[in-house]
């Protein structure tokens, strides 16, 4: 993880494409971008402090979820419109791809060949991707339950 | 003094609001709350709601009167603008700024509102967002460009197939195939082809069902949570099949 911090800014366009796809109101777009960058940067911070990816994703998702909920509450909007768009840039696309690629390697190898290494690669990347996605989904969903409810 | 509305009208309005929420990407808990709040504010004393992945229904009571209704909710899409308008609609209703017939008209207006962004703009921006993914994964400038191109093409295909009412599995596998094939054919221009190809299919990731699924599970709506997770798994399987077909053709 030696990429410069400036790359974290790319989380904003990554989130905004999806925000448009989900028809987020134009006035809410900038907050989606800011939350996306903050979340991604928090995850990178955890990684540079020798934390692991899953824990970093969980922390980042919790942060996004809490801020989105508080912000949306003040403006009488549903918090999910900010949280979901902002969470998208943390999807573990590379691990997913590596897993599928390794599985395809098993499918295409000769009958006598030993696929143990490929199976391990596919399994490790697949499990990692699943854990990151779950951390992301539960981290975003949790603040809705944990924050105190106003009387509504 | 509040006007008294017929129970049937209350139910119709509450179910309509619930249906709109359900089809715009609200979790089960939110949809249920919207139905309950709408019915209560219009004068129902007791409201019982049932929400499955394909149907919503409610029974509302006032004194000795009772009314039950169901609606089919076949398609779960995402429309966060609608969800936002629905929230302000409900708030206006609760603050007594709308009577039942005004509320009905306002709801029709919300349901028919066009999207904020034209299809071509969305297609391009989704492509750009996959390009940004390639950057986040450590790709070089060429990787960003070819990912943007491949994903925009894939996104255009997806839009086309969704408009023709193909099932998610079909559009996920076809669109990922197109996006990856296009990106893969241009892979000689970049020194980081893997990041470009990994990023090119990410526009298909079922983010909303995954997060709503988690939220449903945490809210103890176990069945609906599992349905949403299963839906996401089918879409991911479709993406994987599209990827594997494209990789075979590319000979990687």
Automatic annotation (TrEMBL), chain A:
GO biological process: succinate transport
Keyword presence, 4Fe-4S: no
Location of this chain's protein in the cell: Cell membrane
Membrane topology, as annotated: Multi-pass membrane protein
InterPro entries: ThrE_2 (IPR024528), ThrE_Dicarb/AminoAcid_Exp (IPR050539)
TM region(s), chain numbering: 6-22, 53-72, 117-147
Domain Threonine/Serine exporter ThrE stretches: 10-143
Protein's name according to its UniProt entry: Threonine/serine exporter
Natural source organism: Iodobacter ciconiae
């Amino acid at each position: 993880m030696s990429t410069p911090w400036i790359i974290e800014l790319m989380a904003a366009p990554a989130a905004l494409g999806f925000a448009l796809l989900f028809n987020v109101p134009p006035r809410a777009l900038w907050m989606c971008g800011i939350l996306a960058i903050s979340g991604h940067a928090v995850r990178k911070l955890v990684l540079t402090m020798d934390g692991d990816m899953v824990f970093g994703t969980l922390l980042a998702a919790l942060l996004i979820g809490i801020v989105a909920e508080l912000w949306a509450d003040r403006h009488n909007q549903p918090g999910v419109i900010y949280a979901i768009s902002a969470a998208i840039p943390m999807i573990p696309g590379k691990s997913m791809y590596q897993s599928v690629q390794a599985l395809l390697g098993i499918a295409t190898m000769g009958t006598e060949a030993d696929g143990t290494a490929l199976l391990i690669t596919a399994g490790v990347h697949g499990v990692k991707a699943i854990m990151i996605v779950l951390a992301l989904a539960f981290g975003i969903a949790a603040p809705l339950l944990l924050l105190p409810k106003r009387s509504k | 003094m509040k006007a008294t509305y017929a129970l049937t009208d209350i139910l119709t309005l509450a179910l309509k609001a619930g249906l709109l929420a359900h089809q715009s990407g609200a979790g089960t808990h939110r949809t249920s709350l919207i139905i309950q709040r709408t019915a209560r504010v219009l004068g129902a004393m007791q409201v019982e709601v049932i929400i499955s992945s394909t149907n919503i229904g409610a029974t509302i009571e006032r004194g000795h009167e009772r009314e039950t209704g169901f609606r089919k909710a076949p398609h779960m899409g995402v429309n966060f603008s609608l969800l936002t308008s629905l929230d302000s609609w409900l708030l206006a209703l609760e603050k007594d700024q709308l009577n039942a017939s005004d509320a009905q008209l306002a709801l029709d207006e919300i349901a028919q509102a066009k999207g904020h962004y034209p299809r071509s703009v969305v297609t391009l921006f989704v492509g750009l967002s996959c390009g940004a993914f390639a950057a986040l994964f450590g790709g070089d400038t060429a990787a960003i460009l070819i990912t943007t191109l491949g994903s925009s093409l894939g996104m255009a295909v997806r839009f086309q197939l969704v408009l023709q009412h193909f099932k998610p599995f079909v559009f996920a596998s076809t669109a990922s195939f197109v996006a990856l094939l296009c990106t893969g054919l241009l892979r000689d221009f970049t020194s980081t082809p893997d990041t470009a190809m990994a990023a090119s299919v990410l526009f298909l990731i079922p983010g909303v069902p995954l997060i709503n699924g988690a939220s449903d599970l945490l809210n103890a709506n176990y069945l609906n949570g599992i349905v949403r997770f299963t839906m996401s798994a089918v879409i991911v399987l479709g993406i994987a099949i599209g990827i594997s077909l494209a990789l075979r053709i590319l000979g990687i």
